[in-house]
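Cross-posting from the chemistry board since nobody answered there.

I work mostly on the small-molecule side, so proteins are not my area. We synthesized adenosine-5'-triphosphate and want a rough idea of how it might sit in this target. Sequence and SMILES are below. Is it possible to get a predicted 3D structure of the two together?
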Amino acid sequence: MSQITIENLGVQYRSFEALRQISCVVHSGRLTGMIGPNGAGKSTLLKAMLGLIPARGKPVFYGDQPLHCQLHKVAYVPQRSQIDWTYPATVWDVVMMGRVKKTGWFRRFSASSRHRAYDGLVRVGMEKLCDRPIGQLSGGQQQRVFLARSLAQEAEIFCFDEPFVGVDQKTEAILFQIFRELANQGHIVLVVNHDLGESITHFDDLILLNKEIVAADVRENVLNESNLNRAYGGKVSFFSGSSLQAA
Ligand SMILES: Nc1ncnc2c1ncn2[C@@H]1O[C@H](COP(=O)(O)OP(=O)(O)OP(=O)(O)O)[C@@H](O)[C@H]1O
């Protein structure tokens, strides 16, 4: 089983220190959530891990190689706000983009590539909307299309930044079901999640962040009053087990 190892990572935006001394491991075969208050640096950590922004510290490793040399194994779905929804592409176009790394630019997609893409759409229940422009879908449908694209990529590492924002309950259930299947298949599945409600119980492991790691461990060891107070500064009420509520 491979793992992602982050050691002593730091990120500076000009004079602002966004992340400091981040060390943690993301295990394959586990569904891992990344949580923390607004501005904690969750998206920044995801981007720094994937080499999308510069970072200090040791290179992030996947197995025994730097992750930045293995980006073809990564499927990354950024936050909704970072995607241009006016781009003139259909649902099918977006999902086929997931096959470009395997096929190469300017080459015809093979029948098996098209099959993979269609299969991804079926898994997320979006195959009937293949011809629909992506900008004309609801937030939940758009998120499902991007999940289908990441499935079409046949990646080993799946990273999703706030996939549940603006989605309906049906979509949330579909997303969690597929995340679970991917984890059970032995993949790395890392999901930035804003919500501390019921949905948090889906995760096996949690990384709790506020500029630095507050805790990174199995869910039960992370969700305790002391960790949450350190991360959220008393803005979250802790009831019992995994039951939390924003104060
Ligand atoms: N490109 C940038 N330039 C300067 N500062 C930035 C940049 N991107 C993010 N920041 C700052 O870095 C900090 C961490 O931002 P980031 O988006 O990673 O947090 P987050 O935990 O994902 O927040 P949220 O939950 O609100 O999405 C914030 O204070 C943010 O304002």
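Reply from a structural biologist on the board:
Welcome over. Reading the output above for you: The chain has one domain: 3-84+155-246. The helical segments are 42-49, 91-97, 100-103, 111-123, 139-152, 169-184, 219-222, 225-232. Happy to explain the token format if needed.
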